[in-house]
Design brief:
By secondary structure, the chain is mainly alpha-helical. The protein has a five-stranded parallel β-sheet, sandwiched between helices. It contains 33 helices and seven strands.
Amino acid sequence: MRRELRPADRPEGSTPPGNLPLELNRFVGRADELAELTRALEAARLVTVTGAGGVGKSRFAARAAAVAAGHLGCDAVRRVDLATVRDPNLVEYALAAALELTDHTSRPQREVLLDHLGQRQLLLVIDGFEHLVGACASLVTELLGAAPDLRILAVGRRPLSVEGERIFPLAPLDTADAADLFADRAAALLPGFALDDGNRTDVVEVCRRLDCLPLAVELAAGRLRALSPADLLGRLDDRFRLLTGGTRGALPRHQTLRTAIGWSHELCTAQERLLWARLSVFSGQFDLDAAEYICSGDGLHAEAVLDVLSELIAQSVVIREEADSVVRYRLLDTVRAYGADWLEVSGDTTRMRRRHRDWYMGLATWCELDWFSPRQAQVAAQIGAELPNLRAALEFCLTEPGETHLGQYLAGTLWFFWAGCGRLSEGRHWLERSVELDAENEDGDYARSRLKALWVLGYVAILQGDTVPALAALQECRDEAERVGDATAVAYAEHRRGCLALVTDDLPRAEELLRTALAGYREIGELNSSVLMGQVELAMAVAFRGDLAAAVELCEDVRLVCEDHGERWTLAYALYVLAYAEWTKGDLVRARQLLRECLVIGDTFHDLLGTVLTIELLALITVTEGDAGEAALLQGAAGRIWPSVGLPLFGSAHYNAPHERCASDARAILGDARFESFVAAGARLEPGEAVQRALGRDTASRPTVVPGPRTAHPAPETREPAASPTVQGGETTG
């Protein structure tokens, strides 16, 4: 039996699993501060690193978390960057995303976080919260009160000012370390550069005049492609005289940093300054295509953007990041804010935000089409990476006069991400905000945008198990669609009303509505993942009514269409129905093969609903195979996942029947006490561990066909509950 590696088993001082950013260049200095911060985290559960902008708080905190987490016995370390979050209401969603936590329910996001973190031994790094102090202070207080083994390392320009907080002011580097940092970054630009008797005095003076702030030092080092250290020092003197000022009450270090950034700005060409300002509309990372579209024109040709961007990268204004052979860019938040000020002064902010919105609305539109293709997994990853920019685009639409209908369109267009990639809660947030607003013109495209947002809102609420608002949204959508003659919206409203009837066990009504919707789709020529899902839902309805042959025929047709188009997400649900049919025929090996494919697909898209339904059916197959202990363990694992999805098995008697049959059979074999012990063992598995447990099960030695599901049981199971077969664990898949 494999044993899970717990914190106590991990080599002392090693870094536990998590999402800390990889260090792309050498970390310089601060050895004493790192040791002191580790001691502070041992003594207090909330430590806040404070300091001026550009002092290196984020880099220092990430290094400190990597060092301290292993010593503290944490089973994971997670970092959430709030710099791109503008709405206090989205803090909890950003934290859930950093935790890779998927929740399909209508529960408040804070409740989900409290439940998830309650028993975790986690070090949580919350970075860039200073513009969201109130929301963060409230959340941190509740999290620490509910999770006794949680430690939080906060990073910002001011304290959170909550009870139990220990402040860790971070000073600039000492002069020697600042000079070392300057030399290291300069050598990356000029191979062979090193401190020597000819340049040491000038470099040390440059660092001293910049108060040894790491960001300012790195900006200065970036100028060595054009200047010597002596020239640098001379021009720095000029810029200090030119750019001194700021508010009288501002800290000198803040003035110094602004001077350093302003001086770097002054040394840029006119096109570099223009691009810097325009790039400030991005939230988080961006790619070259987006930069070329959004930032070109009016003094900057699209074909020149790459060259100008390259110069900004060389000057450390823009950060280049590469992952999985994909190159993306970002601005440090302080640098972005400086560019945003210049954009505002130029009077071009609204125009650039509108161009930004247009690009990301186009991206969402294209990805909705591309979702029904072999690129489905890449689309999911792309939308996930662009979520900060999509949030910014949605916020612009829902706050700018005359843009409401576009916000409704964008929130509705992202249905495949909200429903297919475990983002129901955030999707509902945007959808409800959008439909609460009235567009200026409710006819034509304006009406269609609202109707789409309404049926997507109803769909999301159904999946969360929130039937009353789901029905209200769908009824409004259908009534209004009929009024304006929108056949597409009528079909989608009927489809989702049929889905609602299915999960509430009104099978005749479900079949009627779903057949009507599918006929409507055929009439208008609509074919996509959602349409195919309607056919799978119809198959479920007829299967629950006893016509398995018809259900298999419907799902085999779905499978063929999915294979033709490279579709995977809906395919998983069709395979689920086919696996159920194979179980009824007694072909357990084939049923398990189909469900294994379901699990792989669900894990790819972080679709917890598909995952937990599959695990439930796998448990039934497992007890039919004779392994009652493993079946009970899988039921325990599913029981842990359901609260993050919604009402277990939708509260449906039909969806619940396999679960009840499995539990009854396993309990009869094991007895009450052993059955409950296996269930408890499964409930200790993280969702990711449960998926791996189910995927790793060996079926090679099992018979191809066994007696049907209602034959006598094999001999009682004798194995005890096994620990998780994984060694890292601790991270949810959704």
